[in-house]
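Question: Send over one sample?
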Amino acid sequence: MADKLAIREVVETWVIARDSADWELFREQWHDDGYMMATWFQGPRDDFIRVSQEGFAKGVNILHFTGASQATVNGTRAISQTRMTILQRGPVHGVLADVACTGRFYDFFEKRAGRWGIVLRQPIYEKDRLDPVTPGERVEFDQDLLARYPEGYRYLAYLQVQAGYPVKADMPGLRGPAVEALYARGAAWLAGQHVAP
């Protein structure tokens, strides 16, 4: 139980530190070789911190809300799944809009030198929606662009493309081969195997 509580503390601190721009505290939630997989960025911890800082300085508005969390621990390794919602605000074709994307943080954890830290974070994107901030306004979507992205994060991707980010189009969702492959990687990690980002 102590290990599970320590893992939960990392998950919750990650969100608070990132959304409040406490970058040193944020860095401490990872191991040095930590790797982030997000719709708009895939890469090492330090690069993720740098691009997050740059986005924050430009006014990019991304917030996170977490809910139920569960961890499976095997020795010094763990897989943690945490219910989450990503909230992002930005202009879409001249209309200020909010996107809410619900899914799970699927985290590969390891305990090193007595400390649990994130080795790999791979969100699972389950469903999303986009709403104009001002009631009555309407967004006219490019249907071809919208259709490029999976159902689980279609509107989040659309907003992020408008903000100038290259968005990965094959992230895991609620069902399908991508999430099944992720679960298999999680099982391999718990069994002690090396799992590349």
User: Anything to note?
Assistant: The CA atoms of residues 8 and 179 lie 22 Å apart.
